[in-house]
Design brief:
It is a single chain. By secondary structure, the chain is mainly β. The strands form two sheets. The protein has a six-stranded mixed sheet with strand order 2-1-3-4-6-7. It has a two-stranded parallel ribbon with strand order 5-8. The radius of gyration is 12 Å and the shape is globular. It starts with a strand and ends with a strand. The relative contact order is 0.21. The mean pLDDT is about 95.
């Protein structure tokens, strides 16, 4: 069954999609730095990331220098909700570069 999942690639790309497995979001020769699930908070204009990948574990944010985010999400706050329920404001914490997907 497909679910809204995200990964962080070794190249720093944030990739989202409706997939069965997190590895379905990887392209050839990429490595995964973890992942989880996503949802949109439309009233708050936020992309909320949470959880962890069963295959790759939680996102290893410390390995990301610049987060590459699809242009479609420009203007949205990006947050990650950890296992304790605390939110990390990714938009304010990391250098973000937007790209055309």
């Amino acid at each position: 069954m497909e679910h809204p999942k995200f990964i962080i690639t070794s190249g720093g790309h944030l990739r989202l999609g409706m997939v069965t497995l997190h590895r379905d979001l990887l392209m050839a020769h990429e490595q995964c730095l973890g992942g989880g699930f996503y949802e949109f908070d439309y009233p708050g204009n936020r992309l909320v990331l949470s959880g962890k990948s069963f295959d790759y574990g939680p996102p290893r944010w410390s390995r990301v220098e610049t987060l590459l985010v699809p242009e479609a999400y420009r203007g949205m706050a990006i947050v990650y909700r950890d296992a304790r329920g605390e939110e990390i404001n990714i938009t304010n914490t990391f250098k973000i570069a937007y790209y055309q997907a």
